[in-house]
Amino acid sequence: MNPRARHPAPVAEDVRTEHLEFDDNALVIQLFGYHNTHLARIEQRLDVAIHTRGNEATIVGAPEAVATAKAGLTGLYDRLRRGLPVGREEVDAAVRLAVGNGGATRPEDDLVIHTRKRMISPRSPTQADYLKAIDACELVFGLGPAGTGKTYLAVAKAVERLIKGEVDRIILSRPALEAGEQLGFLPGDLREKVDPYLRPLYDALHDMMPSSQVAKRLENGEIEVAPLAFMRGRTLANSFVILDEAQNTTAVQMKMILTRLGENSRMVVTGDLTQVDLPRGTRSGLRDALEVLEGIEGIAFVRFGAADVVRHTLVARMVQAYEAVEARRRTAARYEKKNGNNGVADD
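The structure assignment produced for this chain is given below.
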């Protein structure tokens, strides 16, 4: 493959060439992708050129980018040799891990999550840190934008621990609060009323367990999906507790759920402080908890950013755009607060 140059060619002393040869032709077809689509994706992400001949690949470009591309291809080939699939998402993950981990693309074996339907690996360095924190700490806060895998990975960890018998039940909760819309009264019994708020948690469960298993465990209480209001007065022992959309809790609600934690339990709290749907003037319980609990032993805070978005590359770019605008607004607000509003517009 010899794609058109997308950028001016680097000067000679900045060019590095790396030659790779793979010993399994069948796996090479999967590694390169249909019509070399996987290689084209790596080229686009890293601004390198990849030339192929049979089971060989030659990478040309800036030294750091070539090293990253080599690590990504090597990691993907290792994944194929272990019988795991490689698609567009895995290619993006390999590049992301190589960039963030200095060339290491294969996650540590103890970070691979095994569920009934699939094996789940971290797709960014922050995701790897998140999984390590869940293993090491009894309370973990996962903070960051949508699409970074905060809730999905927490549910995967919970399902794995339930299957292994390390906990007796999974408790999934989130505030029953509309995202900026007034939906009015919902029809049906209690479960039918709250299910729309909890649907993302059900979706994650069904992605990791057969539907019959999900239904059975919901029925016998091994998995409980409930609004946050139902947690008051309970002690959650031998459980894996996940509080999702925590930015929409009040300070009182957050304190209530955190103090439910019982013996042999883990709790993961996820949220995005840029998407608070509370009434104006109401302080987010998540923001309050960050200020109160920072530095306490046994509690971990993992912060995701736009670079960790694994949902779609466009989502990552939109998150970056919103973050840039919010940063400018905060700077302007601080300036106005410091200097006062004298009614004169800036040039």
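Interim note for the steering committee: The radius of gyration is 23 Å. The chain has eleven helices and eleven strands.
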